[in-house]
Amino acid sequence: MIRARLLLLLVAALCGCASKPTQVIVTLDTDAPASQRLEVRVTLAGAGHNDASVAQSWVRGEGRPPFSLPSSFSAIPAAGAARNARVTLWVDATLRSADRPPVEVSFRRTAAFAFQPNVTQYLLIFVPTSCFAAATGCTSPGACTVARRCDEQGLTCGDEGRCVPRDAVLQTSDIDASRPAMDGSGSDGVADVIADIAREAAPRCPGATECAGECVDTNDDARHCGGCGRACAAGQACVSATCTACVAPRLMCGAECVNPETNAQHCGACGAACAARPNSDPRCVGRACAISCVDPFLDCDRSEGNGCEVNGTSDARHCGACGRACAADRVCSGSSCACPAGRSDCGGPCLPTGAACVVGTGACRRDGQIVCAGSGMTGCSVTAGAPRAEVCNGVDDNCDGTVDEDPACVECLTIPGVNVWPLTLMRGDREFDGHGPDVMISVDWTIAGNQVSANACVTATETQSDWSTGQACRTSTSAAAPTNIDAILDPPFRYNYRDTNHNCEGFTGGTAVTGGVCVGDTSGDDICGSSNTCLSPDCAGCQVSFGCVRVRRRAM
Questions:
Q1: What SS3 class is residue 244?
Q2: Nearest by Cα to 118 from 33, 18, 210, 39
Q3: Which of 174, 193, 196 minimizes the C-alpha distance to 182?
Q4: Tens digit of each residue's pLDDT (9 = 90 or more) over 43-76
Q5: Please, what sign has the CA dihedral across residues 283, 288, 289, 292?
Q6: With contact defined as beta carbons under 8 Å apart, do 177 and 192 qualify?
Q7: Which pTM does this prediction carry?
Q8: Residue 355 burial (CB < 10 Å; 0-12/13-18/19+)?
């Protein structure tokens, strides 16, 4: 496993004491290859330093140049800060895998120190790739870092690739930095310690082998085939770290022995590489370039220039194979011809299915979906229920569209008539002065146990002037019914007219409200408290007569 060691140097200088600074050395170690992205950010936090020099970052991998080491910056004490003011050093490292989509793991290490002269502090950080295993199943790098999962528990990702207490990964120590050559001019200074660590950390030949001061690949280098100094004989090539004779039809192309009959990089001759085409892999067949389509793409026009131009999973002209066309009413889905969404193959044609359907009424009603019902036919997925004898239960039991039509379910209750007067003055004066009035009669029914009440109201309103209005309501109740009442079958009653004389006006209704008489404008005060009869009218009011009020009894 490749291990990359990186050194970051942080110098915190005391104001006025530049010759005796506090030095913090951060060593970052990882077993990740240099091609993987690694980002490091060093941050100082606390009131004891100058905010003008808070942080510095380094990034490597994904085409970026490696760190230029050692790297350093200074933290200047803030004005007025105490000599031993403590500062917290945060080192955040983020490592991104080579997966697609990539997985990120993040780490944090911290150390607290004071601005003290002649002290050097070390913080060693190890970034293990084993932490990637703890981040599997994540949907996006930003939402699933190991550090975020660990931090929710007050932990961090440790050297073993699992969440551990933060104290377990703090590796700091204070050493005496008062030795000579603190500025790096002598052999015992901190600068020499830094240089030793940097020399140890820097790989001489990353991804290769150093042979006589040269970085080589011993897998294919004929001078060092399988190891330094193992040279192949004349006419041999180094193939997979083994010297191999390169005889016809093979060719020596550089240090590689290739077969020009099948090698796509040297097809027919050295350096004659087959070009890449869309949705395909280049290949060499009999010294001629060809293409191999990447599933599910197809080369249906037999033109290698545009590669494999057809997607066989969705092209209705070439569904799963070139020339395999789908019928006009079908689409290509998953390399097979099928009916489009919302339609089914009903023994031939694609017919609409899946919509809601209803059969039957009342107690026989059933809800289902449209499905195939034979060759070229559709129908509802359910059948209507069987009717049964009608009972007094508020349900259409026999499924004929009428509820409780059995005569035994209906009873007729007689309600005494009612006189709706005198009217109470609501506004204006008590005189209509021949201006109407408009008279409104309303009757509403209510159920009270085994009885029905008729609530009759009369409103008389002058049509102009001060719009004098009078209103009164009276209630009349039936005798008790022999069984419980479930519902009143007769609707509410409404009647209105305009009174233009001093006479009684009659009106007719139906079986429940049979009719009545009203008087609006009288010879004296119209809205008054006197009694009223149509033989000798004094005040506005109405007499309302009732007949038979039909009710449905509740099943016992």
A1: strand
A2: 18
A3: 193
A4: 766 555 544 445 566 677 666 665 555 555 555 5
A5: negative
A6: no
A7: 0.35
A8: exposed
